[in-house]
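Predict the assembly for these two chains.
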Amino acid sequence: MRETEYAYAVARIRVNELSLLTKADLDQLISADSYSAAVRILTGKGWQEVAGGDMCEEKLNEAWELICESVPDKKLLEAMVIGNDFMNVKSVIKTTFSDLKSEDYIVRPFVCDPAKIIKAVKENDFEELPDYIKECASKAYHAISGNQSGQSAEMIIDKASLETSLDYAKSAGSELLVKIIGLACLVANIKIAVRSSRTGKTEQFALDSMCKCDFTDNKKLTDAAFKGESLADIVSEAGYPEIADEVDKDFTALEMKCDNLVTEWIKKAKDEVYGPDPIIAYYYAKQAEIKNVRIILSAKAAGVPTDTIRERVRDLYV
Amino acid sequence: MTFTMGTALAILGGAFAATLGGVGSAIAVGRVGRAAAGVVTEDPSKFGKVLILQILPGTQGLYGFLIAFLLFNKIGLIGGNIAELTLAQGAMFFCASLPMAIGGLVSALHQGNAAVAGVGIVAKKPEESGKSIIFAAMVETYAVLALLISILAVFGVPVA
């Protein structure tokens, strides 16, 4: 699709970027006296309290509706949220084997109708599901029903989710999206390698659990992790030198670095007038904003000190 | 009345100026229109500001039309008394129309891009909309220069 086709969508996004929370807004939220005071600040900024619902999810749904209305390329939309379908498969399978109601754990937005997933899992018949999800749903279901192994099911779904997201990002033709999802794949593989080595799993287990991506050598990554060597050179070779300093530290610091790095990348889309990048940037900016609001609200509810909250919040797009 | 190759070449020059200028303007105005529609969907009060930006790259189409009109008038096509031009005269008229044809096409497309970026300024900082108009209008300079050269050249070609 020609980049100029996005002119309408980009213009709509630019207007809506004005309603994103600024650094000053976040500071005000962090300094709020209590949880209810923080919620009052948010409602003053146009966030609506939802009876029995999640105000953050509501805000993300609004952003998604705007993107769906304006973006001319369906492939891009699918690439952005295809991962949620796998999360829905995971939650539906897990809730089916417990007393919980599957509908309460559905993540939005999605590509595949969750009702289809629920029906497929309940009937143990996955033929009606789309091709990208069919095989992993069936394997994950049988991993839980046969071996009672929730971990195996999660491993199957997470791996398929990342690989499918990366494939969709590539076919959508956005370098920014490929870079962002590529980072998610790399970090997931690092976590698997390090955790497997720490918990006494075999290298083969780690390799089987990792998603396949063409920019990194999983064998090399696993070898280094199992020998306790630094992973800095491996992530640099994979094209992500920005996280090299954090990769050998704890995962919380690495995750924060990755979130801030994605924000840094999407900020470059501020200067673009055509193409899908401003749309992707807006969606990720909205997700980052919601992540920050959730961090602040849950910290306020738990009475966490202001300085600690400030350390936890991520960089903003605006 | 005899049509010569020179006359045909002169008419081709006028057609070039009108067509390429018009094509450039149509693409650019359409492109800005899409962006403008995006802004107005979210905030209808900005219609006036984005309309000015949409109009700007439309001028190249008018300039191309003007050159074609002057050229056709000079060779008598409009009055019905077409001059019998030599091949050299026809080639001169053809060359005279090229600055407007090529300059018009290229400047319209780039002015369109500048105007789309300007629509982004109106979307986020409407109080700075004047600056966005200046950025887009700067490109107009080169369309005007091309127009002037084409006019001077068209008037300068001798017709017996």
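The mean pLDDT of chain B is 95. The interface with chain A takes residues 31-32, 34-39, 41-43, 113, 116-117, 119-120, 123-124 of chain B (CB under 8 Å).
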